[in-house]
């Protein structure tokens, strides 16, 4: 996928999420997301932080967090979370057109937008038809990324992931079958996605999440 194609998809996902968030009342911003310990508001603030991230800024922030990724993310949420949902949404709107990124494969921006989009939407009962090529690219990247960086490279040495809505099969071993989005969420540690999947490999996936 070309660089411009990735950014077009990322910007479309940011715009779609902003539209969904704009329709929420304050109580719904306080709902728990799929990210453990984070509300919908927290995830939105995290997306502001990641949209504003630069290569140098990422390295500096990681050093300040003593090279603890979880601490780095928590500090980013604290920094970008507005006093009100309206303020955080304004920050997200301002950051949405950016094309800066941390020192990682560019497709990781699609993983960020799609997975965190579902972290917000699923608990709220919202749905989105994500572009299939975006979901497939995100899934392929996650299965090439080591677990230490939030991926599932080691997992696909013992589980075969087969998408029912795409010509896509990755890995070896017992098979986990389902939509590409469900597979993406499962390998990204979202247990709720296991309900979307079938096959003997789902047990091994459950151990991953």
Topology (SSEs and partners):
Elements (H helix, E strand, L loop, with lengths): L2 H20 L3 H4 L10 H13 L2 H10 L4 H12 L4 H11 L12 H17 L7 H11 L17 E4 L5 E2 L4 E4 L1 H8 L14 H7 L1
Parallel strand pairs: 1-3
Antiparallel strand pairs: 1-2
What does the model show?
54% of the residues lie in helices and 5% in strands. The chain has ten helices and three strands, in the order ααααααααβββαα. It has helices at 3-22, 26-29, 40-52, 55-64, 69-80, 85-95, 108-124, 132-142, 180-187, 202-208; strands at 160-163, 169-170, 175-178. Strands 2-1-3 form a three-stranded mixed beta sheet. The mean pLDDT is 95.
Give the radius of gyration.
17 Å
Order of helices and strands: HHHHHHHHEEEHH
| Coarse morphology | globular
Helix content: 40-55%
Distance between the termini: 28 Å
Overall average pLDDT: 95
The strand count comes to 3
User: Beta-sheet strand percentage?
Assistant: under 5%
The poorly predicted ranges are none
List the strand order in the largest sheet: 2-1-3
Q: Major sheet: size, sense and barrel closure?
A: 3 strands, mixed
Number of helices: 10
The secondary-structure class comes to mainly alpha
């Amino acid at each position: 996928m070309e660089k411009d194609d990735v950014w077009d998809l990322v910007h479309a996902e940011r715009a779609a999420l902003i539209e969904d968030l704009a329709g929420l009342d304050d109580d719904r911003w306080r709902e728990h997301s799929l990210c453990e310990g984070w509300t919908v508001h927290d995830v939105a603030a995290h997306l502001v932080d990641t949209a504003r991230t630069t290569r140098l800024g990422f390295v500096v922030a990681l050093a300040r967090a003593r090279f603890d990724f979880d601490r780095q993310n928590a500090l980013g949420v604290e920094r970008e979370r507005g006093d009100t949902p309206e303020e955080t949404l304004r920050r997200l709107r301002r950051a949405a057109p950016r094309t800066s990124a941390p020192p990682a494969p560019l497709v990781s921006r699609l993983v960020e937008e799609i997975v965190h989009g579902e972290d917000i939407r699923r608990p709220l009962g919202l749905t989105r038809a994500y572009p299939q090529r975006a979901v497939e690219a995100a899934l392929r990247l996650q299965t090439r990324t080591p677990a230490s960086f939030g991926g599932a490279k080691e997992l696909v040495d013992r589980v075969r992931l087969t998408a029912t809505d795409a010509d896509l099969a990755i890995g070896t071993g017992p098979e986990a079958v389902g939509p590409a989005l469900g597979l993406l969420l499962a390998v990204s540690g979202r247990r709720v996605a296991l309900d979307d999947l079938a096959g003997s490999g789902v047990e091994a996936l459950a151990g991953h999440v």
